[in-house]
Amino acid sequence: IQFDDLLNFEESVGRKMDFLTQEINREVNTIGSKANDIEVTSLVVLVKSELEKIREQARNIE
Description:
mainly alpha; 3 helices; 0% strand; single chain
């Protein structure tokens, strides 16, 4: 929801999106560290990879 709000915002949003992706990454790391399931661990790696792509795009917005 916050990403949607940022995309409709008129001023520079790159830094805000980068901040949000950092926060999401922290949450994903927490999930990964508490996971005792290989499937969850695999999904964490996938999510982190996708988040890195989003962060790269956010840097291009600035």
